[in-house]
Amino acid sequence: MTIEASRQEQGAERIRLGMVGGGQGAFIGAVHRIASRIDDQYELVAGALSSDPQRARASALELGIAPDRAYGSFEEMAKAEAARPDGIEAVAIVTPNHMHAPAAKAFLEAGIHVICDKPLTLNVEEAKELVDLVDKTGKIFAVTHNYTGYPMIRQARAMVEKGELGEIRLVQAEYPQDWLTERAESTGSKQAEWRTDPKRSGAGGCIGDIGTHAYNLACFVTGLELHELLAQLTTFVEGRQLDDDVQILMRFKGGARGMLWASQVAVGKENGLKLRVYGTKGGLEWTQADPNYLWFTRFGEPKQLLTRGGAGAWPQAARVTRVPAGHPEGYLEGFANIYAEAARAIQAARKGEKPDDDVIFPTVRDGLAGMQFIEAAVASSRAGNQWTKVG
Amino acid sequence: MTIEASRQEQGAERIRLGMVGGGQGAFIGAVHRIASRIDDQYELVAGALSSDPQRARASALELGIAPDRAYGSFEEMAKAEAARPDGIEAVAIVTPNHMHAPAAKAFLEAGIHVICDKPLTLNVEEAKELVDLVDKTGKIFAVTHNYTGYPMIRQARAMVEKGELGEIRLVQAEYPQDWLTERAESTGSKQAEWRTDPKRSGAGGCIGDIGTHAYNLACFVTGLELHELLAQLTTFVEGRQLDDDVQILMRFKGGARGMLWASQVAVGKENGLKLRVYGTKGGLEWTQADPNYLWFTRFGEPKQLLTRGGAGAWPQAARVTRVPAGHPEGYLEGFANIYAEAARAIQAARKGEKPDDDVIFPTVRDGLAGMQFIEAAVASSRAGNQWTKVG
Amino acid sequence: MTIEASRQEQGAERIRLGMVGGGQGAFIGAVHRIASRIDDQYELVAGALSSDPQRARASALELGIAPDRAYGSFEEMAKAEAARPDGIEAVAIVTPNHMHAPAAKAFLEAGIHVICDKPLTLNVEEAKELVDLVDKTGKIFAVTHNYTGYPMIRQARAMVEKGELGEIRLVQAEYPQDWLTERAESTGSKQAEWRTDPKRSGAGGCIGDIGTHAYNLACFVTGLELHELLAQLTTFVEGRQLDDDVQILMRFKGGARGMLWASQVAVGKENGLKLRVYGTKGGLEWTQADPNYLWFTRFGEPKQLLTRGGAGAWPQAARVTRVPAGHPEGYLEGFANIYAEAARAIQAARKGEKPDDDVIFPTVRDGLAGMQFIEAAVASSRAGNQWTKVG
Amino acid sequence: MTIEASRQEQGAERIRLGMVGGGQGAFIGAVHRIASRIDDQYELVAGALSSDPQRARASALELGIAPDRAYGSFEEMAKAEAARPDGIEAVAIVTPNHMHAPAAKAFLEAGIHVICDKPLTLNVEEAKELVDLVDKTGKIFAVTHNYTGYPMIRQARAMVEKGELGEIRLVQAEYPQDWLTERAESTGSKQAEWRTDPKRSGAGGCIGDIGTHAYNLACFVTGLELHELLAQLTTFVEGRQLDDDVQILMRFKGGARGMLWASQVAVGKENGLKLRVYGTKGGLEWTQADPNYLWFTRFGEPKQLLTRGGAGAWPQAARVTRVPAGHPEGYLEGFANIYAEAARAIQAARKGEKPDDDVIFPTVRDGLAGMQFIEAAVASSRAGNQWTKVG
User: Fold this and answer.
1) Contact call for residues A192 and A180 (beta carbons, < 8 A)
2) Could you report the per-residue pLDDT of A364-375, keeping only the tens digit for each?
3) Beta carbons within 8 Å of D372's beta carbon, 6+ residues apart
4) To probe the interface with D, which of B28, B32, B34 has the most D CB atoms within 10 Å?
5) Do both D177 and D288 map to the same domain?
6) Same domain, yes or no, for D164 and D231?
7) What is the rounded distance in angstroms from the CA atom of residue D33 to the CA atom of residue D41?
8) Chain D nearest-CA residue for B328
9) Which Gene3D superfamilies match (chains A, B, C, D) (predicted)?
10) Do D23 and D171 have their domain in common?
11) Who contacts D88 (Cβ-Cβ below 8 Å, separation ≥6)?
């Protein structure tokens, strides 16, 4: 056990943050707010927290946002904040998917950095527009593929990069849940409603909500690019409008192969995201529910259980670690690491600089890659499970 | 914990057993012999333990087989034993795959029951001939898909059958190993040599050696029949003649879907056979390396860890259990359960009876199903990963 | 999985917080600060962050504390803040142990609520004085026995209280670490230095640093009071001034018995705090490193794995839970729950009210109980391992 | 994974074995019989399987023992077998404890090797007589402290011996069960009846039945000798005659310290035997319910999970291993290793030789040590938990 101080606090002036979505009754908004507070790098000062103006204002007041910065719509907020000398520097977009693109565009165009939930947009076209706009405006754009923030995932990535696994052959990714085993969207679950509604979620249900997380994580850790996929999307629950189970075969550039399974009807699984990677020299295994552990085996040697903060932790893990080994960190800390990394980039941007090389967070391009993955999977499945190029 | 006597010893006269294959340097022969001894239902009295007559005889003598029953070939043995008044009643065939069919035919035709290793034969044609011959001769024919012998697998099957999981939606089966990560067949491993040699193994490598186990187990537990599959077989190790990694999508009759992954190049996995089944009402999870546990969740209730011999064990598990809960049973006990079940069938046959309904073991038809699975997988893969009917 | 919003944000005005200790190079100060921020109930506005005035001020500036509230000593800070109209309402004391009592006294006497690290003081006498002072001043006094903040520990306590375990018979508590396996106090570890120095830590080393956590947790969950103990304290590392291993037998009022083991030399253990409780009807098991799980068995029934946020979670767990089941929470969230509960008490006090009954946090009396435990253990060990009354 | 043939079959003539106890309704007799068969080194040819002559004979016939060797008493059997030219060479004694000594004496005096269940006798005095008799007769005497037969326990012992852990400081042993949580001895459990009856079990209940196993295992692995102990034995269940919970502090010669907990009332524990050993350089952890794994950590390095048969397995484990890594072995295989090792000693004795150095099994002296442990624990507890010398 190493006992050391948090590496997160840095003393820089807090970033003025706004939020779109995440008002009363929402789930992920509170997660973003906690994540933004953990390292004291942000201050939430403005919000358009609901598409319902009244609820938006009420939610803002509850959170201690000043009345004049409790906006009824994101358009209003983008405009007003851009005009203030103390206007927000960054905005967190935590709405259902269909609002991501319009909101992101509004803030980018207003010169405000964006932290946006995933999947990035409703479709690839929208995603490409965002990429172009980010390129044009030069603003920071982080996508909260939050699982990339876990320290042992950072370590896994570093180990692959250093060649500890040799050449990668196999990537097994899965993300089973069970919360949509029954037709929750018909029994009052607000979360289930919009996630199974193509108008608000896009063409993918399970594939968009969690399949894309598993895919993003697989690419993040291995550094591989997906060449083509073959997908079978299933809707098991009668009357549901979108897929609730996803089975995919993957061929990566360079020859690695993989499988991806995501499901919302796997009874007994809560958030069972798991990644396994095998190369010519070694293998890795990581499970989101127990994120402080990373299994590593060199071929022909005993298995090692690497622990966050413990012996065997690499600097890439240590720099996003807050407490000593054996004191578990969890989902919120991993999420906070995305915010912390984005903060470093924003602080650099304040000075007109690039962030340091070790600053890593999913960008608008990763968001686009996620949309291309979703689109290819939906297309492959509709075409009778044909191999389909990605991107 | 219940402390109770073994349920296996029965006092009936031991079955006179012969063995084909399994001599010096072999692996699985010793496993079969231990399995046959555990419940004291068999006595090994004859053997043709190698295709090399000299080694065959030497091996037999080492095992205490009488010199006049230490045969140089299985043909000789079938003939001689059939002619003896105290001739063998059953034979265990534990050779490489290509010898299964000829040996099985010889003994069936000689009126001798057969316990045969898997995969059943080199191809579907041979397997069908064996099915016909078993039907014609009326002999007992057990195939050692040994994982079906584990008590908690028996329980899983019983739970599915009773409807504890509701209607099955998803079947996730996997069997990763790592022992062929490098080209062991070129560096003196006898086991690796014949398992990667199409002449001795048939058209499938990994798919035949372990993929077929995973498939058999999935069907055994769920009672489902596979309708069609889509397979991607890969040979990762250069110069290898057969597949060393298998990725399969499955569609079962009735609408359930599944994935199957088997690999011999997944570094860090030893014999990672795992089965997960999800239905409308519940989910199950079982791992071969920790076989005394069965995870079960009813939708909306806490997860249960059912233990072999413990509270929550069903009669179907208890009847193949030998020691109290918390005292682990393993691979050999599971294997022995196949032998014990076959013994019950053979003892019934002695009296011209059928075995009791609760006697369960994989038969020649399960062996045929395995061959059809292998053949379909190889065909699907060669056809560019097309959906292919099974059987 | 239930997806629901955080239950922590409440919209009340933030509590103005000061901090004593926790400056550059310290460990636990950063933990307290993160914990205070997670639910947005506190604002850190003043600090005396080191016993070295210069370092104290530098540390405060780094944290964004206004220069006029960056104090050189806690005495100065207590006095100045008490005099300000916007003075701090509460102070977090995160110094080495020997400073707890004097600092706590200064702030209580200044009318400021206290959140103090454990062990409470250097000895029982000091602790009793604090209890008296808290009684006299009526101020809130929370002790950060942070493990009581974990949701599944809240659930365990509730289950015992409801009688789910029947009458408690056995309490097995342990807290092994390995970071003092070698003489780290001689090789530059600041943390090791003060923790092995009787002047700064008091009469107990391992017993005071982690034994007292295990003891507190055992009492918190079971509701039992310790009657007497028999302790064997050992110093394994040559030259060390305090114990680095603790073995204790415990007799609770009412007849339950227990064992407690704490160690700083158990190679391979990071922060291995574990609690197991067995009653006439059921048993519980919880491990700090995997805090989102609680094992529960009713006698004669299958084991259940209860998960934070999952089916089987009780309201007492749910009210301190922030994210859905399967998304792990960790050490910082548990720690934050102590802060959140104290915030509720302080917010009630603002209105001259008592907090709601469901608000639970370790108080100055728990801190005293910890000191009595340490003192009894040291006395028992010195007396040749005699049964010694506690309290 | 290494795939290799069993190391157990050796081709020597089978040892003629008799059995005392273990008839109908008994538990451990069947275990001994399976253990004796697994490696084909023994043939059960005679038995006095019950203290009830009629049941003894009926049980023998059921097991296929010839009628003239189905004895009504062990005295009769010892005499008759000693007189036969094909008389038994060894006897397995599997009765309740009070019959161990008289039976063992009878067979030793008849020149027959003994394999005896534990605890060795009713008291130390009887045990010493057996030691003397073994010395005098020169017969092999194995005690089935069967947990010493597990391969990873053999490895743990070898690792300690080679100094991989440095100097041992701490030994934590535990063996919790829950089967006597209620008063099973009053509701028809034959196993519970004799195990809670001082006339048949001796002065110790839980301490004798399972505490002694934990103690034996701790000494076997560490090679340490116990100097003194301090015990608290408790009877939690009203009306029970013997202890059902055991808490012990231990001081080993050389300075290591330890704790031992055994319980029969720990709800949820089946056979929770666990051993943890910590030294100046490394730590080990092993759990009986998952016996194919051994956790090992070198101080300052990542944890290793060593697997039976896997990379990192030592020759001392490999020589008692039958199946490849990832194919679990269990309780019966470990038990069989005691029989296999005793067989090697008996085979050597046939030739008037000593067994090879690598042959290891618990002897009559280990049995005596177990009795001395029980006696010291009972004495310490009765004396008010005083430190008590052992042996």
Assistant:
1) yes
2) 999 999 999 999
3) D124, D127, D390, D391
4) B34
5) yes
6) yes
7) 11
8) D330
9) Dihydrodipicolinate Reductase, domain 2 (3.30.360.10), NAD(P)-binding Rossmann-like Domain (3.40.50.720)
10) no
11) D16, D17, D18, D45, D46, D81, D112
Residue B306 lies in a domain: yes
Task: Report the amino acid identity of residue B78.
Answer: A
Token pair 């800070």 is found at C77
Q: Determine, yes or no, domain membership for A346.
A: no
For residues D128 and D169, membership in a common domain is answered with: no
Judge whether C186 is closer than 8 Å to chain A, CB to CB: no
* Position A205 in a domain: yes
Using one digit for the tens of pLDDT, what is the confidence trace for D196-241? 999 999 999 999 999 999 999 999 999 999 999 999 999 999 999 9
| Average pLDDT over all residues of chain C | 95
Instruction: For residue A376, give the nearest of A249, A213, A199 by alpha carbon.
Output: A249
Helix axes B331-350, D331-350, angle to 10 degrees: 80
Chain C partners of D172 at a C-beta cutoff of 8 Å? 261
> Tokens 């993040």, residue?
A220
In 3-state terms chain B splits into helix, strand, coil percentages (rounded to 5) of: 40, 20, 40
Q: Which residues contact B202 (CB under 8 A, 6 or more apart)?
A: B97, B98, B119, B121, B122, B123, B208, B374
Inspect the interface and report whether the beta carbons of C299 and D232 lie closer than 8 Å. no
Identify all chain B residues contacting A303, using CB atoms and an 8 Å cutoff. 268
Contact indicator for A122, A105 with CB cutoff of 8 Å: no
What CA–CA distance (Å, rounded) separates A204 from A89? 32
Chains touching B, CB cut-off 8 Å, 3+ pairs: A, C, D
Q: Report the neighbours of D using a cutoff of 3 or more CB pairs below 8 angstroms.
A: A, B, C
Distance from CA of D27 to the nearest CA of A (A): 36
Question: What's the pLDDT band for D24 if we cut at 50, 70, 90?
Answer: confident
Q: What stretch of H or E contains A42?
A: strand A42-48
- Residue A179 belongs to a domain with what CATH number? 3.30.360.10
On whether the CB atoms of residues A13 and A345 are closer than 8 A, the answer is: no
pLDDT band of A27, cuts 50, 70, 90: confident
Token reading at D63: 């097991």
Of D99, D125, D146, the residue that ends a domain is D146
The CA distance from C209 to A220, in Å, is: 40
Task: With respect to residue A111, please indicate whether it lies within any of the assigned structural domains.
Answer: no
Asked if this assembly's ipTM is beyond 0.90, the reply is yes
Specify the number of domains making up chain D.
2
Q: What residues make up the domain containing C165? A: 148-321+367-389
> Which of B79, B260, B63 lies closest to B174 in space, CA to CA?
B260
Sequence-distant (≥ 6) Cβ neighbours of residue C3 within 8 angstroms: A27, A179, A189, A191, C324
d(Cα D340, Cα D359) in Å, to the nearest integer?
9
What is the rounded distance in angstroms from the CA atom of residue A111 to the CA atom of residue A100?
Answer: 16
Q: Which amino acid is at C364?
A: V
Between chains, do D257 and C245 touch, taking CB under 8 Å as contact? yes
CA dihedral A93, A97, A98, A100 (to 10 degrees): 30
Distance linking the first and last C-alpha atoms of chain C? 44
Q: Chain B within 8 Å of D312 (Cβ-Cβ)? A: no
Q: Which of B28, B4, B24, B36 is nearest to B346 (CA)?
A: B36
Note whether D315 and D231 are same-domain residues: yes
Q: Which residues pair with A226 in a beta bridge?
A: A252
**C300 contacts B302? CB cut-off 8 A:** no
Nearest CA in chain D to A2: D300
Average pLDDT of the residues in C189-211: 94
Q: Do D159 and D139 share a domain, yes or no?
A: no
Alpha-carbon distance C381 to nearest alpha carbon in chain A (angstroms): 27
Least Cα separation, residue C36 to chain A (angstroms): 9
CB within 8 A of B256, min separation 6: which ones? B168, B169, B170, B171, B222, B224
Which of C259, C279, C295 lies at the smallest CB-CB distance from D259? Answer: C259
